[in-house]
Amino acid sequence: MLARLGTLALVLAAVGGGAFWVLTRPASLSADTLAALQSHSADPQHGEQVFWTAGCASCHTAPSVDATASTEARMVLAGGRSFVTPFGTFRAPNISPDPEAGIGTWTLEQFATAVMLGVSPEGAHYYPAFPYTTYTHATPGDIADLWAYWQMLPADPTPSAAHEVGFPFSMRRGLGLWKMLNFDPAFATPVPEDPEAARGHYLVEALGHCAECHTPRDALGGLDRSQWLAGAPNPVGEGRIPALPPQGWTAFDIAAYLETGFTPEFDTAGGEMADVVANISRIAAPDRAAIAAYLVALRASPNP
Amino acid sequence: MPRLLTALATAAALALPTLATAQDMNPNVAARHAVMDVLAYNLGQIGGMAQGRMPYDAAVASTAANNIYHLAMLDIGPMFPEGTDNASTEGSRALPAIWSDMDGFNARWAALQTAAEAMKDAAGTDLASLQGAMGGLGGACGACHQTYRQPQ
User: Fold this and answer.
1) Which of A37, A78, A152, B96 is 20 to 30 A (C-alpha) from A239?
2) Does the predicted interface ipTM exceed a cut of 0.90?
3) pLDDT digits 0-9 by tens, B130-139
4) Residues in B touching A273 (Cβ below 8 Å)
5) Distance from CA of B98 to the nearest CA of A (A)
6) Measured between alpha carbons, how far is B79 from A169 in angstroms, rounded to an integer?
7) Residue A136 Cα to chain centre, angstroms
8) Is A177 exposed, middle or buried (0-12, 13-18, 19+ CB in 10 A)?
9) Given A68, A234, A262, which is nearest B151 (Cβ)?
10) Looking at beta carbons, which residues of chain A come within 8 Å of B143?
11) Model's pTM, two decimal places?
C-alpha cells in the first residue's frame, strides 16, 4: 500500500514537473510574424524614430549618461544601470552591437524574439524589467526597422553585470508562469477612431511603455490593466508616478512637456521621466502630438 | 449675518491646516522652494514665448532671463543643510543623494549658471536665439531633478 502511494506521489510529481516544464516553455515567433519580419524592406531612418520612441537608451546607456547627454552618447548602449525592485536588483545589460559584450552576433529573428517575446537566443526567459509585454504589440516592420538602425549604433566593450535576484525569482524558468498571467497580445485600451489618437495609442501601448511606470502593479509585478495609466507607486524608488493625462493639461501641454521637459507651470520633469523626455524630444513632432491626442482622449473615456 | 459668520468660521477652519503646514515647514525647505518658484515664474515668460504660448517680446524676455541668471548666481548651499532630505523633513522631495554626492549636486547648480548666462545673452536678441538657449536651460533643470529630486 505504502509502496503504491509512493509510486503515485512520484507519478504526480513527474506529471506536475512535466506540466510546469511544458507550461513555462519559452515561446518562439509565429510563422506570420517571421514572414513579415523577413519580407520587410528595412528603413534604418524610421528605425531611429522607433529607437527614440521605445526609449531603449533610458535603461541601456551607462549610468553616467544623463538627460543632458548628446545624441551620440545616448546611442551607446553599454548597460550597467541598476533597477532596485521588490524582486531584486536588475542590471541593464550591454545591448550595443559589440560581438563579445553586446548583441552584435544576433540575427533579426533573435532580436525580434528577445524584444517581442522576452526570450533570449539561448531560449531563456528575460525578466520583465525589460518591457517586452509592451513591445510585443509593435509591428514586425517597426522591429525590423529598429534592427536596421541598430547596425549603425556604436559597439561598446563593457561587460554586462549580473542581476542580483534571490530565490525563487532566480529561477528563470518560473517566468514562464509569470508570462502566462501577464503576457497579453491584446491592447489594454481600444484603438481610438480618430487617426491621430490611434497613432498615439500605438506609440504608447506598443513602444513608449508609459504604462510600465504609470500603471500600478500587482503582488507578482504584473500590470493591473484595470487601472491603465491611473498612476502608481514609483516602481524603482520613492514617491509616486502621476496618473495620465495630468489633471488640467491640454494636448498642447503634453506635447510641449514631452519636447521641452517643462510642465505648464514651468516645473521640469525629474527622475526617470527626465530620460523619457530626452528620448521623446528626439521623435517627430506629429508623433508627440499623437501621444498627446491619445492621452487626452483617454481622460474622456472610462477605464476599460 | 449669523450665516456669514458660520461661513467665515468654516472657511477659517478649512484654511487652518494649510496655514499650520506653511508655518511648520522647515525654513530651509521653504527658502529653496521659494527660489524654485521664482525661477519657474521667470521660466514661464521665456518658456511661454519659446513654446509659442505668447508672442515674443524682447524686453520681457530680457528681464526674465536676467532674473533667472541672478537667481542662478545665488549660493544655495546654506538652504541645503544636513538633515533636510525628504525622509526627515515634511514637504521636501530632496533626495539623500544630494548629501551623499554634494560635489555632483554643486556641479548641477553650476551647470544651471552656465545655461542661465547663455540665456541672458540670447533672450533679448530674437525668438530663434531664445529658443536655441531654451534646451540648455531646461536640460540643466531636468538633469538635477533627475538625480536629486523624488518624483511626486
Assistant:
1) A78
2) no
3) 999 999 999 9
4) 151
5) 14
6) 44
7) 9
8) middle
9) A234
10) 66-68, 274
11) 0.88
